[in-house]
Design goal:
This protein is mostly helical. The chain is 79% helix and 0% strand. The protein has one domain. It starts with a helix and ends with a helix.
Length: 108
């Protein structure tokens, strides 16, 4: 009986952790999309409003970045991979290889 209750408790903890990971990943996706949007604006300003699309689905772009990075394994791998991309975008801004890849994808 004690083993059964312990198993139930571990299952609840596991479900809670999975929920936390999902929340973390979703928030990181939102933050990355916002960062990309800001960087695109900066890129346009520095390049005389170069002709790039205005109606960009940033969520879709972030999903593609995750798959390009190869972080399509566990949710923890996805979080780590996307966090690495996010930090690169923050530190290198429009010089980030990830951002430059997106610019190429968008036709810039």
């Amino acid at each position: 009986m004690l083993a059964f209750k312990a198993g139930q408790a571990l299952e609840r903890i596991s479900n809670t952790l999975e929920g936390c990971h999902e929340l973390t990943l979703n928030k990181l996706k939102q933050n990355t999309a916002k960062q990309l949007e800001m960087l695109l604006q900066e890129y346009k300003e520095r390049n005389n409003n170069v002709n790039l699309p205005n109606d960009i689905d940033w969520k879709d772009i972030v999903e593609k970045l995750i798959s390009i990075d190869g972080s399509v394994g566990s949710i923890q791998d996805q979080i780590l991979g996307l966090y690495e991309i996010y930090l690169d975008l923050i530190s290198k801004t429009i010089e980030s290889p990830y951002f430059l890849l997106i610019i190429q994808f968008l036709g810039g």
